[in-house]
Design brief:
single chain; alpha/beta; D-Maltodextrin-Binding Protein, domain 2; 11 strands
Length: about 325
């Protein structure tokens, strides 16, 4: 039984792609997870629970735009893979998220689970730089060590950055700078950085691929996108800027009024189970279940990122971004 994930590059009326049929219960879901990992997760759910999945893959901002437009009749039962800051926005929307008390999450620290069971944090990830070592050497460019280094004229046109209008990875980057520098200085920084950006991509993972393929020397992206391409043999390395990087909790939730509520609850149970977390740990640097190790064997330099502040200020920040850079 073959599963496929539809990747959506723009908010549209594209139909959800049916992953498989048969007599099993089927859950429809939206996700911002990368296609390869979502294939593995969907297969894991089916093998462990018998629940089939229909999955539509979008970037974070695209997914939220779609959900916001469809609410209260969202065309999916659940979300598996979304920024925590969007969960905080969603929980304040009347009747958007269903409450479910899953027994499989009892040993996950309280900070990763909504007390009313409206969202569940299963992994977390961080911003990082993908640097193409061969391209840097060929062009006699230094390996950047800090956010400030990226403003150096030697990198003019050599940086790929996701667009915060479509990418949660990029919004994490922008909101991290604001929390590190203060808003005024962060906007000045982004204005200067724009001189060195060769392309703004829709996807948060795309800059890692662009750097891996030698299109750009540097990609501002997220950790696992880099590790995956290192594992594939590309000549790239990961750099965590010395100032520290922001991180975000990845969450899952069930939509209020879900057509397949019980099956969606089964999926939430699976995500929080030992089996589900161990599968997630094969694809993510860090998962939230204690004693389940992710893909990294070092402590990244993470700032004390404030997801609540990010959620409360997201709309204002995005309006400012569009005025400056669109």
């Amino acid at each position: 039984m073959k599963k496929s994930i539809l990747s959506l590059t723009a908010v549209s009326a594209a139909a959800v792609l049916t992953a498989c049929g048969g007599e099993n219960e089927t859950v429809t879901m939206y996700t911002h997870n990368d296609e390869d990992e979502m294939q593995a997760f969907a297969s894991g759910v089916e093998e462990a629970t018998g629940v089939d999945t229909e999955v539509l893959r979008m970037s974070s901002e695209e997914a939220w735009s779609r959900i916001d437009a469809e609410h209260p009749d969202v065309n999916a039962d659940m979300m598996w893979g979304m920024l925590h800051s969007f969960a905080l926005v969603a929980e304040n929307e009347e009747d958007m998220l269903a409450s479910y008390d899953s027994p499989e999450w009892e040993d996950v620290p309280d900070e990763f689970v909504d007390p009313e069971g409206r969202w569940y944090g299963w992994s977390y990830w961080f911003n990082a730089l993908a640097v193409n070592e061969e391209l840097l050497e060929e062009n006699d460019m230094d390996v950047p060590e800090s956010w400030d280094d990226l403003l150096d004229p030697q990198y003019e046109g050599e940086i790929a950055l996701p667009d915060p209008g479509t990418s949660g990875t990029a919004f994490l980057f922008v909101s991290t700078l604001m929390q590190e520098m203060g808003e005024e200085e962060a906007w000045e920084y982004l204005d200067e950085l724009d001189d060195n950006v060769g392309q703004y991509s829709q996807s948060g993972s795309a800059p890692a691929q662009m750097a891996a393929q030698g299109e750009y020397a540097i990609g501002i992206t997220w950790d696992q996108a880099i590790f995956d391409r290192i594992d594939e043999g590309y000549p790239i390395d990961i750099v965590i800027p010395e100032e520290g990087v922001g991180y975000d909790l990845d969450v899952a939730w069930i939509f209020e009024g879900a057509e397949n509520q019980e099956a969606a609850e089964t999926v939430i149970d699976y995500i929080g189970s030992d089996e589900g977390m161990e599968l997630a740990a094969e694809h993510r640097s860090m998962v939230t279940k204690p004693d389940v190790d992710g893909t990294i064997d070092f402590e990244p330099n993470l700032i004390d990122y404030d997801a609540v502040w990010a959620s409360e200020n997201r709309e204002r920040i995005m309006d400012e971004w569009q005025e400056r850079f669109d």
